[in-house]
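Researcher: I'd like a structural prediction for the single chain below. Treat it as a standalone chain; there are no partners to consider.
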Amino acid sequence: MKTIYLAGGCFWGTQKFFDQFDGVRSTTVGYANGKTANPTYEQVCRCGTDHAETVKIDFDESIISLSRLLDYYFLTIDPLSVDRQGGDAGRQYRTGIYYTEATLLPEIAAAVAKEEKKVGAPLAVEVKPLENFCPAEEYHQKYLDKNPGGYCHIPAGLLHLKKQ
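Model: Treating it as a single chain, here is the predicted structure.
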């Protein structure tokens, strides 16, 4: 089992998107790489905590590779956008790939290089070690399953790739 942390704008859609894939064992939405411990959603939105809305993804690499997960990730974001995805703007909506195992870095670097070649420019996606992660409040977990009409910046068709 491996773990990767992906910030892709609003965490509701990012969680829903990754939950569809075989090999993804669990996802948790939360706040990563900020300046405070255990922030609330209100603090992240209004108090300059510098956290990114992030999804912790535990995956079975014998079923789905990190490279594949990152290919999927790049389908859901504008990798050139700074602090904005879809209709959401602000520092908490930045994009980022955060890792806890340095052994994942070569695969991450290869995926980023591949995407940079594809878009023809350096990406605005942070690639950093995970400094901290705090799970979001329970009402944010699996939010789009609980609220199917909820806002999501990811096109609806991408939320059902597995079924296509």
